Amino acid sequence: MYADRINALPPYLFATIDEAKAAQKAKGVDVIDLGVGDPDQPTPSHIVDSMCDAVKDPATHRYPSYTGMMEFREAVADWCKESRGLELDAATETLTLIGSKEGVAHIPLAFINPGDVALVPDPAYPVYKIGTQFAGGEPHIMPLLEENGFLPDLEAIPKDKLARAKLMFLNYPNNPTSATADVKYFEEVVEFAKENDIVVVHDNAYSEMVYDDYKAPSFLSVDGAMDVGMELYSMSKTYNMTGWRLAFAVGNKDLITGFGKAKSNIDSGAFDAVQRAGITALSSSQQCVADMNTMYQERRDVLLKGLRGIGLDAKAPKATFYMWVPIPDGYDSIGFSKLLLEEAGIVATPGVGFGEYGEGYVRFALTQSADRLEEAVARMEKLTI
Ligand SMILES: *Cc1c(COP(=O)(O)O)cnc(C)c1O
Question: Which SUPFAM superfamilies does the record cross-reference, listed alphabetically (predicted)?
């Protein structure tokens, strides 16, 4: 019944986890869910209020612009300048997205012909690979190894794949490893992309979720990056707006144009009222973001101490709300997650759910209160591992 592209999809591990979680809940277990990367806090009220006003204005009720509301894209350009010094032309170098997942899924349609290669990291957000396959492209896996700081080893990409490669996906601060990339690495990527004629798509969904005075560099701030790439920013994690579906792409004007052409034939843009709320988010005080980071950092420190206390080799992430933790000997990632769920009522995501190179790790999301994290740690202390 289904097309090959659907039949070829790997079994969806997250559905299995959901079932196992539901089964524990049905048994009356007080489950602590550190599985999903979805902020637990509400959208800040000034953004919600702005949406309420916007939705009452009939001007927002009609089809939006394909490329996005000009005022939103101007707010995007201003925010990019203010936060990271990027000089962008709102009209040609920005594009509104209905979430960056939508963007990632549609980008290959604009740049990949059947048989072309896209370079995708592993472990990773699954959409890079699947979006490539949906467009008829061939994903080439770039392993993210701890010994390389979870950065792809560009030298290790085979020449024959490189000859066919059109696109490269990167994501720093990274989900699931929480690794960060420095400017020097981005400079290498730009040089590599120019040499090999590759379009770079940097998914910067965790751009603002940073700790200990760390600031995540923008890929586009590197010399030459505007010639080869685009960067995707999302309102989802930054402003607790995952349900609203709003993000934006910025970067090279020809790339933005091509991407926009693919999109305009598929979707009809983001709801104008949501974009108006987005303007409020981007152009108001960013104190809400700082407060959120303080909260996540406190949670991070609670979980870090707890995991180290039970002998796990956990490291303090500088960014993202994930902890990517090597699992104890004698388990694989699914087995260890199963133990956590069944013996401690804790949901953590097995690393292998993000790709084969995620094996050997579990991901904890800091999406529960510090108290709940303390409780999770107390339960883990009772485990015999
Ligand atoms: C959460 C996340 C996104 C955000 O996707 P939206 O569609 O904007 O909600 C994008 N990329 C990665 C790696 C993520 O973890």
Answer: PLP-dependent transferases
Q: What is the CATH number of the domain that holds 234?
A: 3.40.640.10
Domain that holds residue 305: 4-42+287-381
User: In this structure, are 54 and 29 located in the same domain?
Assistant: no
* pLDDT of res. 21: 93
| Total number of domains constituting the chain | 2
- Which ligand 1 atom is at minimum distance from the Cα of 97? 8
Last residue of some domain: 254, 283, 312? 283
- Let me know whether 34 and 62 are in one domain: no
Q: Which of 43, 101, 235, 240 to mutate to test the pocket of ligand 1 (most atoms within 8 A of CB)?
A: 101
Task: Please give the number of the atom of ligand 1 that sits closest to the Cα of 103.
Answer: 7
Mean pLDDT for 293-309 is 96
- CA–centroid distance, 101 to ligand 1, in Å, is 6
- Name the DSSP class of 210: B
Residue nearest to atom 14 of ligand 1 (CA): 205
Answering whether pTM is above 0.90, one says yes
Residues 96, 239 within the same domain: yes
Say what the pLDDT of residue 385 is.
75
Who lines ligand 1 at CB under 6 A?
A: 37, 99-101, 125, 171, 175, 203, 205, 234, 236-237, 242, 247
Residue 200 to residue 198: CA distance in whole angstroms: 6
Atom 11 in ligand 1: residue holding the nearest Cα: 205
Which residue's CA is minimally distant from atom 2 of ligand 1? 205
Q: How far is the CA of 311 from the centre of ligand 1 (A)?
A: 31
Does the structure show a pLDDT above 90 at 178? yes
